[in-house]
Design a protein that fits this description.
about 110 residues, mainly alpha, 5 helices
Length: about 110
């Protein structure tokens, strides 16, 4: 109410809410790191959760002048949370050429 121009209002809003976007990115990171396999959900649910967190994180990073994270990190997290019965799948995945190692390729192999 004490601001005279739209720019002053914008700067005040930015100062008040920018820290919350930083907090949100930290929360998303924590969600990614803490996500673990639960027997109640199947592979597609786990992958969908991770992809959602991943896209939220990578969409928020440029606003903080941070670079997007490589897809390899998402692939690693997906493989990491798989239960032991997927061990053969993990080994097979690692034998694929780098050109075929994308998140979409990984998903189609499930």
């Amino acid at each position: 109410m004490d601001k005279e121009t739209a720019r002053e209002v914008w700067e005040e809003l930015k100062c008040n809410f920018e820290p919350s976007s930083k907090d949100q990115l930290f929360r998303i990171c924590a969600d990614i790191f803490s996500l673990a396999w639960t027997s109640a959900d199947d592979v597609s649910v786990h992958v969908a959760k991770l992809k959602t967190f991943w896209h939220e994180l990578n969409n928020g990073l440029p606003a903080r002048r941070e670079v997007e994270l490589p897809e390899m990190m998402l692939i690693s997290k997906i493989l990491h949370i798989l239960p032991s019965e997927y061990q053969t799948f993990k080994f097979s995945w690692m034998l694929l050429s780098d050109k075929k190692q994308s998140v979409e390729e990984l998903i189609t192999l499930f």
